[in-house]
Amino acid sequence: MILDIDYIWPFLLLLPIVAFLYASVGHGGASGYLALMAMFSFTPETMKPTALLLNLFVAGIAFLHYNKAGFFNKRLFWSFAISSIPLAFVGGMIDIEATIYKRILAVLLIFTILKMLNVFGKESEKINHVKLWQGLIVGAIIGFFSGLIGIGGGIILTPIILLLHWGNMKEAAAVSALFIWVNSAAGLIGQFSSGVEISSQSFILVGIVLIGGFLGSYYGSKKFNNKILRQLLAFVLIIASIKLIFV
Question: Residue 186: which region, alpha, beta or left (left: phi > 0; alpha: psi -120 to 50)?
Fold first, then answer.
């Protein structure tokens, strides 16, 4: 049971903060939730479906705010989503050994850390149109690992969009938000089809992340950039990565 985890109150206090920071850049926060759950010794069987469920709500709110602000690029989104959705479903059906799961998650968290520290993925005025074959390949790879690990894939897609100049910062956030939502839904359906069930206590966590997600996406779709908070989140993620690799 989720709420029987030791030191659950610090976890519940950190959860909306993570949702706030991720939603401010158009992300659902699954990699952050997974990092927190790893730090508090959740089992992989609980981590994956719970993170996807939380992603659905936070990424959905983030998309609504960014779309309302006029930043959504439909063509850019479908370039990736066509191939990512079916492969996220396939990834969600696969159950991998706990040690391998933790190692893959630790590697993917590196993308999150680098993004939070703005090491890569900086905005450029030059915009290139993504070719269909490029979008299909990128979407397929990210979609599969999204379903496999229990993330939406936005933390990988956003830096790629910015690095290859396929969109600006706000467009990347809007596209990533919906990309995360569809992949999370597909991955969760894949989980259900393989017999996985979600604890009813997970919906308590949904209520908690909705608060942070709503505020984060609202301010993020306007003008918001808190460097100190992002650095603190990066520090937490580094600790989680170390635990995943060595514990």
Answer: alpha
